[in-house]
Amino acid sequence: MINNNPQMKRNILLIACLVFLTVNFVNCQTGSPWFSVKEVSPRIWIIGDHGADNMYLVEGTDSALLIDAGLGVADLASQVKKLTSKPLIVVNTHGHSDHAGSNYQFAKVYVHPADSAAARACNSPEARANSSKNMQGGNAPAEAELFKGKPFNTKLVPVREGHLFRLGGRTLKVIETPGHTPGEIILLDIENKLLFTGDNNNVLVWLFLQNCKPLHEYLATLQKEAAMILQFTTIYPGHGTPLPADFVNDQIACVKGILNNTLERKPYKSFAGNSLVSVSGRASVAFNPDNL
Ligand SMILES: [Zn+2]
Q1: Would you call 159 helix, strand, or coil by DSSP?
Q2: Rounded to the nearest whole angstrom, what is the distance from the C-alpha of residue 102 to the centroid of ligand 1?
């Protein structure tokens, strides 16, 4: 039945306008479609890099810390400004192209000295395009989505074990975790017992790349992490969804099983090369049998 009541028509039009405005407001608040944004804990956001990796923005009362900088193919600096007005500090968990790719958008970035050369190398336009192509399954981003801002001559500031980022009511401590890269670091939110782990605690960790440390050194890193397991409840990885703290124990079992040769080894293929992979519990490790 068609309703010809003019008042009813006006109400329907008004509701349609409100829905349209609300949807657009939400889209504006969440920023560029390249990024997805979710507040996972009060004043902590996961910024998804079009499915390729996770960045984290952690805000204190005085300043905010951006943990990792993604692929660098979209306007991350503007996205962050939509979420926080606090002075921003940027840190890379390591120098790989999907974690340090947007460094050129910031004046200063903290990175471990063992990874600073890698972080610098992945910031050329060619390197960014290449890494984006690899991480997006062969689909480079559309030209319209590429960052158009003026790049900084970014200063890389060395950061080491024990460094404290004091954000006001929230302190993040740097812990050196060599393995996936020589200069990989993780960050412990001391007050909130949260651990931001880059590529050190993914469900599948890559230990087969050319500059990875030998597997027994990665085991020592995991054991160091397990020794502080009462200091954190949740792991926020560089790829995938958050994990409980005891995931580290599965990773230790996996690496020990590889070193003792008690786990099945299967072929593993990726854009970054071929290797072997073993699984234990929730954890998988792809490794080079010549670098144990
Ligand atoms: Zn990595």
Answers
A1: coil
A2: 14
In a domain, 150, yes or no: yes
Is 52 domain-assigned? yes
- Ligand 1 midpoint to CA 5 (Å): 62
CATH number of domain containing 148: 3.60.15.10
Distance 249 CA to ligand 1 centre (A): 21
Q: Using a pLDDT cut of 90, give the percent of the chain over it.
A: 76
Where does 60-193 show beta strands of DSSP type E? Answer: 64-67, 88-91, 108-111, 155-158, 164-166, 171-176, 185-189
Assess if residue 76 is contained within a domain: yes
How many structural domains does the chain have? 1
Domain span at residue 188 reads: 31-287
β-pair partners for 274: 269
d(CA 94, ligand 1 centre) in Å: 7
**What's the CA gap between 228 and 221, in Å, rounded?**
11
Cα distances (Å, whole numbers) of residue 39 to 28, 46, 83, 106, 193: 16, 6, 10, 23, 17
Residue bearing the bigger pLDDT, 74 or 33: 74
How many whole angstroms from 98 Cα to the centroid of ligand 1?
7
Cα of 200 vs centre of ligand 1, distance in Å, is: 8
Task: Report pLDDT for 108.
Answer: 98
- The answer to whether residue 154 sits within a structural domain is yes
